[in-house]
Every structure is written in C-alpha cells, then in structure tokens.
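Re: that backbone. Tokens:
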C-alpha cells in the first residue's frame, strides 16, 4: 500500500502529540508503548518505523514540546508581550487543570531526572534556551541579573504549578498559584 507524500511525517507528528499528552497526564513510567499506539490508532509495529525505543520517543517528545514553548516565547518577544503575561498564563487554573496540553517541565521534571544522559542533555539545552528567552523579557538589570532572575522565576513557576496540581484542596491550589504569581512578579521587578 502506497501512502501520500508526507504521510510518514504526519504519522510521526501524531504519535508525538499522543505520547506528549499521555506522558504529561499520567507520567512517562505509567504510559506504555501499546497504549500510545492504540490511542494513536496505529499498530505497535508501526512505532519502530518512527522511533528506536521508548527512550527515543521520550527525548523527541521533550524536544518537540519544549521547542513549541520556545517558539511561543519568541513570538511573545517579537510581539512585546510582557513577562507578567507569561507568568500569569503559566500559573493559571487553566494551565493547572490541563496537564496533558501544558508545560512538560512541570509535568515531567521529576521523572526526567532519572532518565539517561542523552535525554537529560536534550532537556537541559531546551530549558536553558527558555530561561534565556525569559531573561530577554525582563526589562531591568544587566544580562547576568536578568538571567539569574529568569532562572528563579522559571523555577518558581514550575514548582508552584507542580504543587498546585498535587494538592487535593482546590482553594489551597488556587492560593499556591496566586502567591507564586506575586512572588514571580516581584522577582521580575514588575511590582
């Protein structure tokens, strides 16, 4: 059976999207290849046409998802979107409640720490890029000061989102998000 030109790329893209959502919703360890392929509407054998292993898929999902976030940050810079807007969007109830379509850093950082060096290297490179873009959005201070603040802001945002998702008290979860917004804005000198 012959497929149209681009079918392979579309199929790969679909697998990445399905795996990303499942990893972010349930965790990498909890998601098997059979479940991903079933959800994608494909056979298990088709997986190996696109990826060498589950670890290869994990790495590709991380790079893809973080590249998309990076592209949004670049668009924010080009369009003059303030760092305050980025902080408020990240630490929103909407983002908290939609882990499957949200930031892979908040959803997967604890698991990534236990993955092989090649996966951690890819993750590290993308996180460094995101921090650099966030530093560019901060208006005040030297480049070094802005980078330090960007690291602190990003860490605050990721940790707060993880904690807000983990607690089972909705009011406490909302408080965590609200207070993290205030703290991140203070660090960014937006308040």
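Recovered sequence:
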């Amino acid at each position: 059976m012959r497929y149209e030109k681009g079918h392979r790329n579309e199929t790969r893209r679909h697998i990445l999207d399905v795996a990303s959502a499942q990893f972010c919703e349930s965790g990498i360890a909890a998601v098997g290849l059979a479940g991903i392929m079933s959800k994608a509407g494909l056979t298990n054998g088709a997986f190996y046409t696109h990826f060498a292993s589950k670890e290869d898929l994990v790495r590709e999902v991380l790079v893809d998802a973080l590249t998309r976030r990076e592209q949004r940050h670049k668009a924010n810079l080009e369009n003059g979107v303030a760092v305050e807007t980025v902080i408020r969007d990240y630490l929103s109830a909407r983002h908290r409640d939609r882990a499957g379509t949200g930031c892979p850093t908040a959803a997967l950082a604890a698991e990534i720490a236990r993955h092989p060096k090649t996966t951690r290297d890819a993750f590290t490179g993308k996180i460094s890029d995101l921090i650099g873009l966030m530093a560019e959005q901060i208006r005040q201070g030297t480049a070094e000061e802005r980078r330090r603040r960007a690291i602190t802001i990003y860490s605050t945002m990721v940790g707060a989102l993880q904690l807000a998702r983990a607690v089972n008290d909705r009011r406490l979860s909302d408080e965590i998000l609200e207070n993290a917004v205030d703290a991140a804005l203070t660090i960014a000198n937006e308040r």
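The radius of gyration is 18 Å. The chain is about 75% helix and 0% strand.
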